[in-house]
Design brief:
Elements (H helix, E strand, L loop, with lengths): L4 H11 L9 H16 L6 H8 L3 H7 L3 H22 L5 H15 L8 H7 L6 H24 L5 H22 L2 H12 L5
Helix pairs in contact: 1-6, 2-3, 3-4, 5-8, 8-9, 9-10
Length: about 200
């Protein structure tokens, strides 16, 4: 099975058409933190950096998030909620189209030289993170696998659990290697290989 890049790009265009509301200071901090984490890693992010990003003092960041693990946990929860909302928008009547839309969510997260999936970063740094952050990151991956398992089972794909785990691992890993190599084609190759034959 090949990935129809036109379909993926079309889905990404639709998913970007979201209503924008004024952000609270807490949301601004989370937005700035997500950008930094996805671009340079959680360990590299400091409250002082975030304070400068949003124009407040470090103490004000601590008011909203007393500790860095508190902020990390909120970041992953927010990212997972947004991702879940995007998953729920994907029509699942056609297996190939649904899989292409799923890949599209990961493709959107990869911007060479700028960012990758937040939970890919958190997963890579798991050894040094708090149990609560790791639990939320694990739940994010579990949510993705569960969505895929349901989709694959609905369309009669065998070994849906193993296949779902393979797809998620391939997309996350492909994203990390593509980012490190500054070569987006690596992600595209991995994505195509992960889906090959599923909806043939």
């Amino acid at each position: 099975m090949g990935i129809d890049l036109k379909t993926v790009n079309s889905y990404l265009s639709i998913s970007r058409q979201m209503r924008v509301s004024p952000m609270t200071m807490k949301e601004k901090i989370l937005e700035a933190a997500e950008k930094r984490v996805r671009g340079a890693g959680f360990a590299e992010m400091s409250f002082r950096d975030l304070a400068g990003d949003v124009g407040i003092k470090s103490a004000s960041v601590h008011y909203h998030f007393p500790t860095k693990p508190d902020l990390g946990e909120a970041l992953v929860a927010r990212y997972a909620d947004r991702f879940k909302a995007e998953l729920e928008k994907i029509p699942t009547d056609n297996l190939q189209s649904a899989l292409e839309a799923f890949v599209g969510l990961y493709a959107k997260a990869l911007v060479l030289g700028e960012s990758i999936c937040l939970c890919a970063v958190m997963g890579a740094e798991a050894i040094g993170l708090s149990e609560n952050i790791n639990a939320r990151t694990k739940a994010f991956f579990g949510m993705n696998k569960a969505w895929l398992e349901t989709l694959l089972s609905r369309h009669g794909v065998e070994n849906e659990r193993e296949t779902a785990a393979l797809i998620v691992a391939a997309l996350e890993g492909g994203m990390i290697v593509a980012s490190a190599s500054k070569d987006r084609s690596i992600f595209d190759i991995v994505a195509k290989a992960a889906l090959r034959g599923i909806a043939a």
